[in-house]
Amino acid sequence: MSKRCPATSQPEQDCKRVRRDPPLPSPESVNLIRQRNAQESPLLRLPAELRNRIYELVVGGHLIHVEAEDKKEGCSKSRAFDESAFAQLTIWQSLQLKRWCDHKSLHYYPCTAASEGEAYDRFLDASALEFLPGDDEVFANNWRLGDRYHVLSCKERHAKCLPQDDDKKPEWMWAPIDRSRLAGATNMSLFRALEFGLLQTCSQIHHEAKDLPLSANTFSVRDLVSFLLLACRLGPLRAQIIKSIHIVLRLGRDREHWAYWLAVPKISHGLSGVRHFHLSLLIIHAGMGDDGPFRDDFFSGRTTSWLSGLDRFRALPLSCVTVILSDDPDSKFGIKGFSDSALQYGWSHDNETWLQLREHECLTAEEKRRWAKQLKSYLLNETSDLVLR
Fold first, then answer.
1. C-alpha closest to that of 154 among 72, 63, 237, 238
2. Are 300 and 151 within one domain?
3. pLDDT at position 332
4. Is 173 in the same domain as 271?
5. 217 belongs to a structural domain
6. Is residue 192, in this structure, part of any structural domain at all?
């Protein structure tokens, strides 16, 4: 028996339900709602200065880690690179930004560690660096927290701020061999990531507080691509709203890229609103291609090539600067570096050789503190001297 023909020959696509947006409210009804809110809302009846303080307490005071991650297939690219906002970039600069940023999405993670101000106070307090518990081995504490070389790095302090679940970890936390199975990430709104529901309660509150997520929080970037993607996403005008920024700069990698892009006017102009600058410097001697400064470089002043991009911040009227200098945990003189089987070839797996190398090439914790104070004074235009004495 042959199959019966459909009762209608109407094309299948015509049968699909068409989604229609609800009609917009009339201006008159919007005004009525606004007037009623202003008269009845306990919050909106408060003086503007008090409302603004409440907004700051609710949506401000966070340190927000900004991570650039590979996108999922099909994720919208419309907000990844705002070409119109950077129309004055050169052709090469535009192409480079697109190459780095177009396939990336931004994710935001609220910090759960101590604030950078608290970390800086601890960094300056030598008595706060106690030894970790250890056994009685001869070298048990030579590379542990509290010895005369070690400073707690931002990597260690912020290790638990990011998701630990495999399906939520940022790309850089995965071993290179495992990155091929990453599913990728979708674009995420800053408001959605931090659940700033207050801004969605009514149009007046949104109008009064819409800039506070940018101006009342500190944005932390650990690599150049995350920094550039944030600048591209916001555009120069919106980026100027940011008042506080935390940059993780690795002395030994990427110095040319950072120095170049911080000097690009359209990029650096977006930093003009920054008044609080928190800087975490990681010294890297981890393998091929790493050329971080050695101890002699700090005493001879041969550190300017790693820091030339920071001169952009000297032009700003900064009111607060913190600088923390440490060895990268995975570097030769970091906590993990000593036990790294590949790095141990550099000292023939001999503890005494490693200790002698560290004494010759690595700054002590006290020297790190002294030089960090000098760099802070340099950024505040209180000195032009970066030679460790």
1. 63
2. yes
3. 82
4. no
5. yes
6. yes
Tell which residue, 199, 203, 123, has the closest CA to residue 368: 123
Domain around 67: 47-113+161-224
Closest CA to 182 of 193, 192, 170, 191: 170
User: For residues 239-264, b (16+ Cβ closer than 10 Å) or e, as one string?
Assistant: bbbbbbbbbbbbbbbbbebbbebbeb
Compute the C-alpha angle 279/52/275, nearest 5°: 20
Give domain status of residue 18, yes or no. no
Same domain, yes or no, for 255 and 277? yes
Could you tell me if 218 and 311 lie in one domain?
A: no
HEC-encoded secondary structure of the chain: CCCCCCCCCCCHHHHCCCCCCCCCCCHHHHHHHHHHHHHHCCCCCCCHHHHHHHHHHHHCCCEEEEEEEEECCCCCCCCCCCCHHHCCCCHHHHHHHHHHHCCEEEEEEECCCCCHHHHHHHHHCHHHCCCCCCCCCCCCCCCCCCCCCCCCCHHHHCCCCCCCCCCCCCHHHCCHHHHHHCCCECCCCHHHHHCCHHHHCCHHHHHHHCCHHHHCCEEEECCHHHHHHHHHHHHHHHHCCCCEEEEEEEECCCHHHHHHHHCCHHHHHHHCCCCEEEEEEEECCCCCCCCCCCHHHHHHCCCHHHHHHHHHHHCCCCCEEEEEEEECCCCCCCCCCCCCCCHHHHHCCCHHHHHHHHHHHCCCHHHHHHHHHHHHHHHCCCCCCCCCC
Regions in the chain scoring below 70 on pLDDT: 1-22, 24-25, 28-30, 33, 72-88, 128-146, 163-195, 255, 286-290, 338-343, 345-346
- Looking at the fold, whether 145 and 183 belong to one and the same domain comes out as no
The distance from CA 135 to its chain's CA centroid, rounded to whole angstroms, is: 37
Whole-number Å distance between alpha carbons of 44 and 47:
8
- Look at the chain and report how many structural domains it folds into: 2
Dihedral pair phi/psi, residue 209, rounded to 5°: -120, 5
Output the six-digit token pair for 376. 């802070």
pLDDT of 302: 85
Asked if residue 235 is part of any domain, the answer here is no
**Residue 146 structure tokens:** 């509290």
| Structure confidence at residue 168 (pLDDT) | 53
Question: Nearest-CA neighbor of 331 among 322, 340, 323, 320?
Answer: 340
Out of 224, 251, 270, pick the residue that ends a domain: 224
